[in-house]
Specification:
Rossmann fold; five-stranded parallel sheet; five-stranded mixed sheet; 19 strands; 22% strand
């Protein structure tokens, strides 16, 4: 059985252990407002938890090695202390923490964040079809077009380039959402066009970060006036880069051609014609020179070009019409970290219309603090198919909550957070406007002063 299957099995067993804690019997005690439990039940629960933890630890060590961060992260969850009072609450906290780590590891393995890639057999079956994605700034579309022309000669047909006709994102698609799906669905070969324009575009830097975090294959092409020393993002490897105009650019292009031929299992292009197309490409690209960003303070420029260590791979915001102006919601956000540990501080749901009343606060406001979340598979039901959905959500937030504040997402890891709640609509008869489905966003605060704003596209269910 593969490591991913073993981890999924232990997740299922862990949930059963967690659910079994509800059977712990209470007994009377002398202290007021303190819950005591029957000794036999406490000992039985402790043995089951300890056995589950040791087995999980052994599986992680056998699969990744004793010093791997997955092992240390899981061992860190074994922290409950015997206070002699509310054992059940302590056991639940410890089990939820351990399950959260295993589920994060499982998702990371599924998306290849640890370099676990599909086998050649899976690729042959088309499970992860190959695709070249050209990451570039819109202002550099002529540069991107030259790359596409060269790829066409090599024989590459599966290309995504947002500014070149024939390879654009389909009409009517949300660009950001389409790119996120592309990073998840395909075995990507990312070609990054490094220019001064590129480093002033947050979307481009996020694309670069996603390529790095998801361990995709990539190759960098530097404009004639862009130096290696200016590669300040997470992708800054000179060994997989072409500097237009450099003495070794011909040999580097030969290397790129070979990697693409191998990646797509293509026949070798006409070797007699290759030097002609290669040199024509280099000659055409020598004209792409862009002046550096205009004079701004160094702090402002630094802030604009900063690559966030926290990446949003996908987001989904669903609103349900529940009658009487109540809108239950579910927000699922898939995060990935890059080159450092992420410690969440707060996540706030906001709207720029102040007439919305957010349930549980009893006043007009435009923000809601999302203090805790569930793993996406905790409920395993669809809202519209179960009349007791809100009650079930409430029960799960009592038994299986994960708190946002100080929650750790280890570097190069991935986690999906699922938030639930109710938005109340102020009545139109009282002078308020109709409910607005636009203008929603999440503001994520993490580490010390870092922030990330996530625009949300509402789907009414």
């Amino acid at each position: 059985m593969q490591i991913a299957e073993l981890i999924e099995q232990k997740i299922t067993e862990g949930k059963a252990v967690l659910s079994g804690l509800d059977a712990m019997r209470e007994r009377s005690g002398m202290a007021i407002n303190v819950t005591y439990y029957v000794h036999e039940d406490v000992d039985s629960a402790r043995r089951k938890i300890h056995k589950w933890q040791l087995t999980c630890k052994d599986i992680l060590i056998s699969g990744f090695g004793e010093t791997h961060r997955y092992v240390t992260e899981f061992v860190d969850t074994i922290t409950a202390k015997d206070t002699g009072f509310n054992f059940k609450r302590e056991f639940e906290r410890e089990m939820n923490h351990g399950l959260s780590v295993l589920e994060s590891i499982s998702e990371s393995l599924q998306l290849g964040l640890e370099g676990i890639v599909a086998t050649s057999e899976e690729k042959a079956k088309g499970i992860t079809p190959p695709l070249v994605f050209i990451s570039h700034a819109e202002l550099d579309k002529e540069f991107a077009n030259e790359i596409v022309t060269l790829l066409e000669f090599i024989g590459v047909k599966d290309i995504l380039c947002t500014s070149v006709d024939g390879y654009r994102i389909p009409l009517g698609c949300d660009i950001i959402e389409y790119l996120r799906e592309t990073f998840n669905k395909y075995n990507l070969f990312v070609i990054i066009l490094h220019t001064h324009n590129y480093y002033t575009r947050p979307v481009c830097l996020n694309e670069m970060g996603a390529a790095w975090a998801l361990k995709t294959k990539y190759f960098s092409v530097l404009a004639p006036d862009f130096d290696f020393s200016e590669m300040t993002g997470v992708v800054n490897d000179r060994d997989v880069a072409i500097k237009i105009g450099a003495a070794d650019c011909e040999s580097r292009l030969n290397q790129l051609k070979k990697e693409l031929v191998d990646f797509f299992s293509l026949p070798e292009p006409n070797e007699n014609r290759w030097p002609h197309y290669r040199n024509k490409f280099l000659s055409n690209c020598l004209k792409f020179k862009v002046s550096k960003p205009s004079n701004k303070s160094s702090e402002v420029a630094k802030e604009e070009t900063k690559t966030s260590p926290l990446i949003v791979l996908s987001s989904n915001f669903r609103l349900f019409e529940d009658g009487d102006g109540c809108y239950p919601f579910q927000i699922d956000v898939k995060f990935a970290s890059q080159d450092e540990d992420i410690y969440f501080k707060s996540i706030i749901l906001s709207n720029d219309h102040r007439y919305v009343e957010l349930d549980g606060y009893g006043a007009k406001n435009d923000i809601l603090h999302l203090n805790k979340y569930l793993k996406p598979n905790v409920l395993d039901i669809e809202y519209s198919k179960n009349a007791n959905y809100n009650d079930l959500v409430g029960e799960k937030y009592q038994s299986s909550p994960i708190y946002v504040e100080d929650h750790k997402l280890a570097k190069k890891a991935l986690e999906t957070m699922s938030f639930h709640g109710i938005i109340g609509l102020m009545r139109q008869m009282d002078g308020y406007e109709d409910f607005e489905v636009e203008g929603w966003e999440l503001c994520v605060s993490y580490n010390i002063n870092d922030r990330l704003t996530i625009p949300l596209k509402v789907v009414m269910v």
